[in-house]
Amino acid sequence: MNKSFKIKVGGSDNLRTLRTILHDTYGLPPGSFVIGAVFNNEFMKLHTTSANVVEVAEEQGATLMYEINPALNPQLPAQAMRQDAMYNVGEDVTML
């Protein structure tokens, strides 16, 4: 299901903060989705939780959130890191 939201964030907020806002506002579990960039119908980048919200929004293309299969029990890492985009889901199902 496709949904579109407008959310107020600060200039120094990262995607982890955005996840908290989405959880508090819409009840969306913070680790239940990945955030990626798509441009010209091609996947460009998978963002980590440490990425700056404003920089992500200013990139070319669309910023999309994809739900992770709940059966994989995705979990948001304990802290924002530069390489945390696999959400504690096993390596056998996280190949790109």
Topology (SSEs and partners):
Elements: H1 15-26, E1 33-39, E2 42-47, H2 53-58, E3 62-67
Antiparallel strand pairs: 1-2, 1-3
Overall description:
It is a single chain. The protein has 96 residues and is of the alpha+beta class. It has a domain at 10-69: Phosphatidylinositol 3-kinase Catalytic Subunit, Chain A, domain 1 (Ubiquitin-like (UB roll)), CATH 3.10.20. It contains 2 helices and 3 strands. The chain has a 3-stranded antiparallel beta sheet, with no helix packed on it. Strand 1 (33-39) and strand 2 form a beta hairpin. The mean pLDDT is 81.
Rg, nearest Å = 13 Å
Count of individual helical segments = 2
Task: Supply the helix-strand structural class.
Answer: alpha+beta
What is the β-strand count? Answer: 3
- Residue windows where pLDDT falls under 50 for at least 5 positions: none
Which term fits the overall shape?
A: globular
Indicate the CATH topology of the domain at 10-69.
Answer: Ubiquitin-like (UB roll)
CATH architectural grouping of the domain at 10-69: Roll
Q: What top-tier CATH class of the domain at 10-69 fits best?
A: Alpha Beta
Helicity range of the residues? 10-25%
